[in-house]
């Protein structure tokens, strides 16, 4: 079934967000590529338009309410009512709890949780008006706890409760909300983790792959494919779920 909706993907200048934006556009949606730096969105926008799709780039810090309001209004103005929202923007500020600063905590909770809250609050009105919507939030296998990530795992566990509540509140308007929880995905984020723990990215990938049942690490396209299903019209009876996409069982 073709999907011809307007989608917003945050943190879509690179990594999982960029792959998701490309995939949603390939599925027929017009896509707003949101990221901190508008110029950095251009690569993803160019990929989409070169493939025959429709996209715009919008600069926004998702943790700032006024910027979020303006960005979502601009998307509605330039592309139409956004009814697909992928809350993907993310950062890490890893440290063991005794070294973690208040800034490390606030920055991570601010982008992931506050950012998802602000984006969803700004976009949900369009969805309820259209009586149709798909919200997909990025959680993580780290929601189950991960050394050095007290802030990040709290944020990613929080994303799951946030998602389930959205599913309960917005279901009657034809809006579904689901969380995708990736395991190890090969992006700049996992490259930064390798650097922090002092191993080469190549060794980090090899070591991680050896512990994953499908014997490889994930690629951004693995996550984009799962998000594309949840964003599709035919996924309308799937809501409030957390789908681990980690190459093996997690719950
Ligand atoms: P990434 O390559 O680091 O990309 C994240 C993007 O988010 C960057 O373009 C970044 O912009 C943008 N961003 C950061 N803060 C922002 C803000 N305040 N407002 C708007 N955009 C902002 O990360 P990724 O690996 O693709 O991860 C994407 C999502 O998946 C994140 O939520 C992450 O937590 C989650 N995830 C990733 C993995 C993994 O293994 N990679 C596993 C589980 C979950 P800048 O470049 O300007 O900083």
UniProtKB/TrEMBL annotation:
Residues 5-183 form the Ketoreductase domain. Keywords: NADP, Oxidoreductase. The keyword Oxidoreductase applies. GO terms for biological process: monocarboxylic acid metabolic process. SUPFAM superfamilies: NAD(P)-binding Rossmann-fold domains. InterPro entries: KR_dom, NAD(P)-bd_dom_sf, Sc_DH/Rdtase_CS, SDR, SDR_fam. It holds the Pfam family adh_short_C2. The keyword NADP applies. It comes from the Bacteria. One of its GO terms (molecular function) is oxidoreductase activity. NCBIfam families: PRK12826.1-2. Belongs to the short-chain dehydrogenases/reductases (SDR) family. This is 3-oxoacyl-ACP reductase FabG. It comes from Knoellia koreensis.
């Amino acid at each position: 079934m073709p999907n011809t909706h307007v989608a917003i993907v945050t943190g879509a200048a690179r990594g999982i967000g960029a792959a998701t934006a490309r995939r949603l556009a390939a599925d027929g949606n017009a896509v707003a590529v949101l990221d901190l730096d508008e110029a950095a969105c251009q690569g993803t926008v160019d990929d989409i338009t070169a493939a025959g799709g429709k996209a715009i780039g919008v600069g926004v810090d998702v943790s700032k309410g006024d910027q979020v309001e303006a960005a979502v209004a601009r998307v509605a103005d330039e592309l139409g009512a956004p009814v697909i929202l992928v809350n993907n923007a993310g950062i890490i500020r890893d440290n063991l709890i005794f070294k973690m600063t208040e800034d490390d905590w606030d920055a991570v909770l601010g982008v992931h949780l506050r950012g998802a809250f602000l984006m969803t609050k700004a976009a949900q009105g369009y969805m309820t008006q259209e009586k149709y919507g798909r919200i997909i939030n990025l959680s993580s296998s780290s929601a189950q706890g991960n050394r050095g990530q007290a802030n990040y795992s709290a944020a990613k566990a929080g994303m799951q409760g946030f998602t389930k509540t959205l599913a309960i509140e917005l279901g009657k308007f034809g809006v579904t909300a689901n969380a995708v929880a990736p395991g190890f995905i090969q992006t700049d984020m996992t490259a930064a983790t390798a650097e922090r723990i002092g191993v080469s990215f190549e060794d980090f990938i090899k070591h991680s792959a050896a512990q994953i049942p499908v014997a490889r690490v994930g690629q951004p396209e693995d996550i984009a494919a799962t998000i594309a299903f949840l964003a599709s019209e035919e996924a309308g009876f799937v809501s409030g779920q957390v789908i681990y996409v980690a190459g093996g069982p997690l719950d």
